[in-house]
Amino acid sequence: MAALAPNNLVYERPEGFTDTPTHYCPGCTHGVAHRLVAEVLEEMGVIDRTIGVAPVGCAVFAYNYFDTDFVEAPHGRAPAMATGIKRVLPDRIVFTYQGDGDLASIGMGEIVHAAARGENLTVIFINNANFGMTGGQMAPTTLPGMKTTSSPNGRDVETQGFPIRMAEMLGTLDGVGYVVRRSLHDPKSIRLAKKAIRLAFETQARGLGFSMVELLSTCPTNWGMTPVDSLKFVEQHMVPAYPLGDYKVAAGVAQIKV
Amino acid sequence: MTHELWKGNEAIAEASVRAGLEAYFGYPITPQTEILEYLSRRMPELGRTFVQAESELGAINMVYGAACAGVRVMSTSSSPGVSLMMEGLSYIAGTEVPAVLVNVMRGGPGLGNIAPAQGDYNQAVHGGGHGDYRNIVLAPAFVQEAIDLTALSFDLAEKYRTICMIILDGCLGQMMEPAMMPEMKPIQRADWDWATDGRMGKRERRVLTSIYLDPVQEERTNLRLISRWRAIQRDEVRYKEYFLDDAEFVIIGFGTAGRVALSAVRQARQNGIKVGLLRPITVSPFPFEVIDQLVGRVSGFLVTEMNSGQMLEDVRLAVKGRVPVEFYGRMGGVVPFTEEILREIERIAAEPLSVDVNPREQWYERMVGMR
User: Fold this and answer.
1) CB B57 within 8 A of CB B90
2) What is the pTM of this model?
3) Do A47 and B199 touch (CB under 8 A)?
């Protein structure tokens, strides 16, 4: 294929990516989130000194797609593993990429304490309201009444509890520099999400403490919806339950211009 | 260098610092907390990493991360805390990165108590976590030995890209005795060809993981681990012999149980009983061959442990029923007195012994009868 003239080239694989097709389902927003992270790492010129920490969940193979060093953590322990790496290599950029089962269920202890300690890490948190990899079980983030393979009659809050709003919760901690929630359901939201991811990594690069971007995401396969309907579901049901917004922007972070 | 009075736990902490420990992650639990406390002061003053983790689970995964970054890293805990670390240990083993873990064992199972015990032998020597792997397990009996083995543990962990555990009990952790500290070794970060420390313009990216989705690849990894373990079995068996030259009976005990047995052996010798002691220092790899060679020379073995006979099984595996094996153990945090083991030595020297009895059954009957 002939190379495109630069003025016709509007879309290409970011440098932060390897040349590997992803394993994600059609219509899943993991690919979008991955791309935003890769673009930000490229724009900041830090690919070369970034170390990623993959979770257990759908993103377990994230290490195949980013052209950075990567490690693969036990389920939920990515923030602890990232702590170990960042503490001994403070000049590197270290990020975890975690789903809601990983981060908000089994990894609740690790994420809260990494945030409380103000670890200079960036966490990309994918909230798609279910356990994707194991086939769509209820997660702590599953909406009330939402049917999953382990809440077949819909999540009954009387017996199965209420959703956890991670961004709000972590926003209360003093060690946190930057915690926001964004969505990936339309182009405008995606642009805002990218800006937030940039700010999160800038927070880390400046040593301003823990940073996390929660991204409302789709799971068309396990939700049993078309990709388009999944995006509508996020807009109509996820956003009202998980309001988009900034839950902690430390004074130093607020001054960062990107 | 001069002898100083060192407490076991603090000796291990300082020895790890002098061996070039770059990062420590831990969580308080008796009877090992002095290691954490000591390093909380010592590591920051040297500009090194100390983090008190939110749990042992957090601590071992911080160790995992720092190990992947290629630095000398350690955690320490005691029995219930070590159980909590088993997930991380399995991942560290599966990822083939070096790490040091100290277990100052206490009475169990469950919350048990905080008294000295050796009930975690099986957990330590058989890997402990899920999947097929082994740990190098060192068992000091003296504070000086704890210091020496701490330094060795880092070298072994790095040489074989494996977990090196040091198991001792609350007795050795808490006791003070004169010991010599080695000179301070400067931190020398090795340029490992596996560490995920960032490409830094020098190389292609690296990935460290314990996932091998293709069973054939996983089996290949299992075989690689076994091959490494075979080299460890061949080259790293360590043990200490006492009075074995003319011994008719041989006591086998590790750590504190071995130390108490040594006092009993000395007394028995004064009473004219030709008894010796074999004290395994690496309980994993276990000195099978050493015991195998003793079989032809001795009339019987007595295994003493502070558990219900966990190492006993390894001894029986080595002896293969060729000569009698007897057992004496105390559990639950009870440390045997020298007199108890002396009595056992006198018993096996006087009584006819049989290869056809189960030593643990016999011991149990005697234990219950004692009460």
Assistant:
1) no
2) 0.97
3) yes
Do residues B41 and B89 both lie within one domain? yes
The pLDDT, as a whole number, for residue B183 is: 96
Chain B residues touching chain A at CB-CB below 8 Å: 22-23, 25, 49, 51, 53-55, 57-59, 61-69, 71, 73, 87-88, 91, 95, 196-201, 205-211
**Averaged confidence pLDDT in chain B:** 97
Å from A24 to nearest chain B CA? 16
**Does the interface predicted TM-score (ipTM) exceed 0.90?**
yes
Residue A217's contacts (CB-CB under 8 Å, 6 or more residues apart) are A28, A29, A30, A33, A126, A127, A128, A184, A234
**Side-chain-facing half-sphere of B65: CA atoms under 13 Å:** 35
Q: With left for phi above 0 and alpha for psi between -120 and 50, is residue A213 left, alpha or beta?
A: beta
For residue B359, give the CATH number of its domain: 3.40.50.920
- Domains in chain A (CATH in brackets) are 18-149+162-254 (3.40.50.970)
Three-class secondary structure of residue A53 per DSSP:
strand
Q: Please tell me if residue A73 touches chain B, with a CB cutoff of 8 Å.
A: yes
Contact: A80, B53; criterion CB under 8 Å = yes
CB contact under 8 A, B199 and A109: no
Same domain, residue pair B173 and B225: yes
pLDDT of A151-185, one tens digit each?
999 999 999 999 999 999 999 999 999 999 999 99
